[in-house]
Amino acid sequence: MNQEYINTTNKIKVVSKPLPARKLGTNKVENQMSN
């Protein structure tokens, strides 16, 4: 494994992690508001 590959995968992990959590969070808020 070369360092550049490791850095790239780490960046992808950091970038892709918040998106699903953010979607879940906004969906929960929207569901509470609509109920």
The Rg value, from CA coordinates, equals 16 Å
Distance between the termini: 50 Å
SS-based structural class?
mainly alpha
Order of helices and strands: HH
Question: Segments where pLDDT lies below 50 for 5+ residues?
Answer: none
Main sheet specs: none
Strand content: under 5%
If you average the pLDDT, what whole number results? 69
Number of strands: 0
**Helix proportion range:** over 70%
Number of helices: 2
What spatial form do the alpha-carbon principal axes imply? rod-shaped
Notes on the protein architecture:
With 35 residues, this protein is mainly alpha-helical. The chain is 89% helix and 0% strand. It is built from two helices and no strands. The longest helix is centred in the last third of the chain and has 17 residues, at 18-34. The protein is rod-shaped. The model has no long low-confidence stretch (mean pLDDT 69).
